[in-house]
User: Fold this.
Amino acid sequence: DAKTTQPPSMDCAEGRAANLPCNHSTISGNEYVYWYRQIHSQGPQYIIHGLKNNETNEMASLIITEDRKSSTLILPHATLRDTAVYYCIVRVVNKLSFGAGTTVTVRA
Amino acid sequence: GAVVSQHPSRVICKSGTSVKIECRSLDFQATTMFWYRQFPKQSLMLMATSNEGSKATYEQGVEKDKFLINHASLTLSTLTVTSAHPEDSSFYICSVRRGNPNTEAFFGQGTRLTVV
Assistant:
């Protein structure tokens, strides 16, 4: 699976959009980009995934660059409950391999 | 509602004893389930892939005789930590995914194991 690079941490203000970057420069043509988050002492929660088109659901939007070497997860209106570790993962089949992720802290 | 149910949520056991953790897929049949382990302040590490009706596939460095996996039905996989030691204390998490490998995976709430 392709390796991903995320900033270790970021802060954002409650009510504002949070933009979480992820680099995956070695991604191959058939690998999807997945985003999960883990709130302290809980199992990871699925957020969104995509192949090459931008995606949006009730939780977030996923913007994938045209060359697919990077992506951005957008939380449109961050709340305090969005404080978590966010993982960007690329995979082709079966296994999800988790990196260190980005610790996002939403501040009032 | 929850897609995956993991039980127990936390357990304390004595060194040398065995502990069984259950993972149930509530919404769909899962031919494949995954087991992860997470130490404090670290990321999730995949331990093994549980295959219904066949042997589990273990990741490199994971002792198959210590971490016994049974996937006897399409909705239940169990992880048994045998002869537990304090260094086995960790957060164990299972995951299930629908048949299509490009769909999302769902995770259990995790089991906090403490070996004393």
